[in-house]
Write the structure tokens for this entry.
Amino acid sequence: MIYELNNLSYQISSNRILKNLNCKIKKGFLTVLIGPNGAGKSTLIKILSGEVSNYTGDINFYGRSLKNFSCTELASVRAVLTQNQNNALPFKSYEIVNIGKIKNKSSDELSSAISYMNHTESSHLALRNYNTLSGGEVKRVDLAKMLAQDCKICLLDEPTNHLDPYFQRAILVKCKELTAKGFSVVAALHDLNLASIFADEIIAIKDGVIISQGHPNEIINKTLIKEIFHIDSEIILHPSGRPNILML
Amino acid sequence: MNSKYKTSLLILLIVLPLVILVCAGSGAYFLKPWLIPKILWEKLDGYEILLYIRFPRVALALLVGSSLAISGVAMQGLFRNPLASPDIIGVSSGASLGAALWIVLFSHFVNINYGLSIAAFLGGVVVVLLITKLGKISNLSGISALVLAGLAINAIAGSILGLITNYSNEEELRSLVFWSMGGLGGINWKTIATTLPLFIIGFLILLPLGNSLNALSLGESEAFHLGYNVKTCQRKIILGSTLLVGASVSLAGGIGFIGLIIPHLLRTWIGADHRWLLFSSSIAGGILLLMADLLSRTIAIPAEIPVGILTSLMGGPFFLWILIKQKSRLI
């Protein structure tokens, strides 16, 4: 168990974003958050990262209340892949990766950065100006930066945004590799089939409430898809043995 | 830091003493730069000029030039925008207003040494306190609130400055105009020594912030995720640059664009890594102001053009050139 949410609620002025969430996020799992736009997925990622802390209720993190962690402590245990980055300053891609390398700094920063970029098939971009990269390239460099932080817990907010099908899949394969090594990954995803095929556990959220949580085989069904996304669907079996959702 | 950074730092460190010697030697009474060490050592003819006129001026140019350049680097990292500078958050106009108020209102009644410097510095500090407070009251956090508050402060300070200029007598007016154009003349070691602690503290605050600035230039939440205390970092950056800009304005008046030109040139030359940029900008800023000052006092011997006018004359077109070259990428 890494995170244990007890009665977690969060509101911005009178707008309640998350309502009494109770759930556990397990160690070594790829946990995927699914839900429509505005369901509260990104907010939950922000709360789990420690960035947003004015919630009510409690989050138990490694046996302590998450609010009691300092930002330095948090940075040594969890890394975050955020959405939309912009940087008007002309950093090289490898320098961006290096900014993520906060522990065990190496004197040869270029080759240290490239070793992480190899994992995200972005090492050829190392000397390119970060500003001139395409959306998908930026995402891969950012992912390398997240890996460089070398944390056992990875929080990814819509990591497949801007990526082509090949890299969407590659990023989830990478996540599975990480969980196989004992890392825990929490990702918010929009692609239900990727979620279903790769997740160890899915948390389905709508309007700030957890509708369902469990293994894809247990919880993915027509009723859930209808309830969350208002889409009629047919569930078939994917060769991987996981449910595959056909939108009707 | 990679070898490219080391090489460029080395080049700057070699150029610096050469520029110092040329600037110390040049002027109405010319001394050959290569003879300067000998003159100083053996107290030959020109020793007094060097020691009491040329070198204080060189020291001031170095201090002010590096302060403005390093504050520019810090502000641009903080705002994540290569067009940001200390002027944006209103520190410079606050300091100018403080100095103007001193000239017109207080200098007639109170006669203390360095009253102008103190007033200019306090003006800068008041602006920073005000902006921080405004951000809190309006419940706007983050950099955009700071920029907007800075915009308003700049407008207010500008209009009060105009009002003061409008109602000042001829003598005050001359003093105001001369001071607002910026110049390094008439400086002595005593004045530099009194302000030196402010410069030292400012540099000690800013120089170690390379890693924090790198992280902050990815955005506030990114910096937080990497374990940096964002509020503390931002406060340090603002405090450090206010000290340096306030101290600079109080000694040399309004000298613009150095905080913009130097960081930009160095970034284009080598790269954006702040660990390197903070050091190299400090050196290069000093070099640039030294050369500008040399130009300002040799271009029309025996008359002297205010150096602030020269830097703005070079900096304005440079600013426009960046805008045209980089177009939308800067926003």
Observations:
- Chain A has one domain: 3-247.
- The longest strand of chain A covers residues 15-25.
